[in-house]
Amino acid sequence: QVQLVESGGGLVQAGGSTTLSCAASGRTASNYAMGWCRQPPGKEREFVAAISWSGGTTYYARSVKGRFTISRDNDKNTVWLQMNSVKPEDTAVYYCVADLNLSTVVGGANYDGMDYWGKGTLVTVSS
After folding, report:
1. What is the DSSP string of 36-86?
2. pLDDT at 28
3. CB-count burial class (<10 Å; 0-12, 13-18, 19+) for 89
4. How many helical (H) and strand (E) elements, i.e. helices and strands, does the chain have?
5. DSSP at 104
6. By the 8 A CB rule, do 70 and 51 touch?
7. pLDDT given at position 26
């Protein structure tokens, strides 16, 4: 079992920066690809960013590429999402996710088969 706990959400001004953290518990957490999905108000969940178990491969949604950076430290069992130049349309509940398959993390925002989900943290970007 892997448990995921997000932190770092809150109110951010447009153009500003914030960092989300995801603490993973469980002996095998470092074996999992991890990532972030988000659900804007009134919309479906969508993929944001993914990182392989080693940290050597990353993927980003087109809407955040160049502004967001995903990283991980397996010794600390933590994944971060650095969010720069945020926009009002980045307002959403952000979920940390984990799966043994990186492809599932990339494509599984609305897939019930994702191995693990965090409870989410709300990021609100004010204009």
Report:
1. EEEE-TTS--EEEEEE-TTS--EEE-TTTBTTEEEEEETTTTEEEEEE-S-
2. 82
3. exposed
4. 1, 11
5. H
6. yes
7. 84
- 8 Å CB contact between 70 and 55: no
Token reading at 14: 């447009």
Q: How far is CA 92 from CA 2, 45, 56, 57, in A?
A: 24, 9, 27, 25
Contacts for 103 with CB less than 8 Å, ≥ 6 apart: none
Residues of the chain short of pLDDT 70, as ranges, are none
Q: Which two tokens stand for residue 18?
A: 């914030």
Q: What is the pLDDT of residues 98-114, one digit of tens each?
A: 999 999 999 887 877 89
Give the pair of three-digit tokens for residue 102: 């990186």
Cα–Cα dist 53/56, whole Å: 8
Rounded to whole angstroms, the Cα distance separating 75 from 12 reads 29
Q: Give the pLDDT score at 60.
A: 98
